[in-house]
Design a protein that fits this description.
Strand order of the largest sheet: 4-3-2-5-6-9-7
Shape: elongated
Order of helices and strands: EHEHEHEHEHEHHEEEHHHH
Low-confidence stretches: none
Structural class: alpha/beta
Radius of gyration: 20 Å
Number of strands: 9
Distance between the termini: 59 Å
Largest sheet: 7 strands, mixed
Strand content: 15-25%
């Protein structure tokens, strides 16, 4: 098998620039884990550089043609190619209770879902690095006060330090996407447990940004806030004006109000 044909329905854009592949692999610090899971390896342009590192590399790939290619060209991966959908995959099958990092040139059509799944598995994933559409990577790393700051920004940064690393041009892919790409790194915070009900925190953040043009007093009124609490000046703000810490504070106030 010479090459795998990129499949549009899987959001495949194969990276063909070796130096960029190496730079993405080098974004991992390799601290706090001995295993790495690459999502959507395709023909292994990134995988080959991961296999040079002192960690155990696993790959998860839904495309059977890519799985056949990897089996044929990367003998070091034998027994470590998971032919499944990452979003439905049961991590304990191959990783037990061990921590592991996630990396990849992520399929654009499921990249935000990959981040949400990583947040669900945050107890297990100390580090995450990879390539997204530039706009999505910027959104994840954005700070308060910007139009692109949103649900992904707050939830990712509540548990991880987010760094935008570099931009990748369209022409280094086959087929080239219509937009630029961006590579980021998420490093889990030392204390990543929030001092609030985390389920309530997720709900408050999502509800606030689902009506991002409204002040919090209006977007969160389904919580039946007391008149006294509604007078708090935090409710004069719109969601993009709140930092992660202020969202935590907001969640504490709503919880104390008796949700």
């Amino acid at each position: 098998m010479d090459k795998v044909k990129a499949k549009k329905h899987l959001g495949q854009h194969f990276l063909k620039d070796e130096s960029i592949a190496r730079d993405i692999a080098d974004a991992l610090s390799l601290n706090g884990y001995k295993k790495v899971l690459e999502i959507g390896p395709g023909m292994g342009v990134l995988t080959k550089y991961l296999l040079e590192k002192p960690v155990e590399t696993y790959v998860i790939e839904i495309d059977t043609e890519s799985v056949d290619y990897l089996n044929a060209h990367y003998p070091k991966l034998h027994g470590k190619i998971i032919s499944e959908d990452f979003l439905k995959y049961h991590i304990a099958k191959d990783f037990g209770d061990e921590p592991f990092a996630i990396i990849g040139n992520f399929p654009y059509n499921i990249s935000t879902q990959i981040v949400f799944r990583t947040l669900e598995l945050r107890d297990r994933i100390p580090e995450f690095s990879g390539m997204f559409q530039k706009e999505v990577a910027e959104r994840i790393c954005e700070k308060k006060g910007s139009k692109t700051y949103g649900i992904l920004s707050v939830l990712a940064q509540a548990f991880y330090h987010a760094e935008y690393l570099f931009t990748v041009d369209e022409h280094v892919f086959n087929p080239p996407p219509k937009v630029k790409s961006g590579v980021l790194r998420l490093t889990r915070k030392e204390d990543y447990h929030l001092p609030v009900d985390e389920k309530l925190f997720f709900t408050v953040v999502k509800m606030a940004f689902n009506q991002r043009r409204k002040t919090l007093r209006n977007s969160l009124k389904t919580y039946n806030l007391s008149d006294n609490l509604k007078e708090d000046t935090i409710f004069d703000l719109r969601p993009e004006q709140l930092s992660v810490e202020q969202f935590i504070d907001l969640t504490q106030k709503i919880a104390a109000n008796g949700v």
